[in-house]
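Wed. Picked up where I left off yesterday with Autophagy-related protein 27. The coffee machine is broken again, so keeping this brief.
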Amino acid sequence: MRPTTSLSLSLLSTLLLLPISTLAAFTGQAEADGVKFDFTQLKQHSVIVEHKQDPTVVKSTYTINPVGKIEVSNEVSKEDQCPDGTQVCMISRLWHGDKPDDHVAQIIPFGSFESEKGSEPEYTIMRDADKKVLGLNVTIHGPEYGEKKLKQSAIVKFLCDPEKTGLEPDTDGKDSNSLKFVSYEGDQTLTLEWRTKYACEKVPGETPAPSQGSWGFFTWFIVIAFLAVAAYLIFGSWLNYNKYGARGWDLLPHSDTLRDLPYLIKDFLRRAVNTFQGSGGRGGYSAI
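Structure written out below (tokens, as returned):
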């Protein structure tokens, strides 16, 4: 029995040392070919594609949430939204002129936030001929769809673009949206491109930009000085009240000095002005 026990312990130790790399969900963080990517600063984003089908127009909205499942709206009926748990989805609606139909025409979930076992997200790094990182391909698997029961999936190409945050929408028809529709092949594979600075490789040793929300030395100095003065005034007032029964201005420590402070400052400024004026005058006797 002893060899069997040793073998079991050996197998258990081996399993514990294996890296856990088969997460069933894409949460915005990934690693490929030794390069780490962090897309957690991105938010749910959409791109709209139009197809003319006389006399109507089909507008398809492709939505992706890179850090979780697509948010469900309480203002829209459940039948007109992506299934709960979907991470990449398309919703198509027919438009007649400027008016859309009351209900959507088609909903296709391309990727689920929690994939089945064996369908975990796949990561492929993109490089140029000089091995420079161009971005990351993320493949997210989804459920079956349609009469043929074709298993859907979404390939999201996160492309390095230092000039884009990744949240730019399409403004005034200028096609400035950082998220682009590329293709939908074989009725089962959707491809999107997402340009963002978060897909760029970080230079080793690069110091991160200082946080805008942190306090500098001068700010901390002002805060500490203010607290020290406040504590001094409060403690001194309490001491004068309990020891001498002081009231009003007499409560403050060194109240006489504080009361005379405006006059002292005024006198100091007058002397300073007289000193500068006197230094600029001519020497010798003055006429009487």
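Quick read: DSSP finds three helices and twelve strands in the chain.
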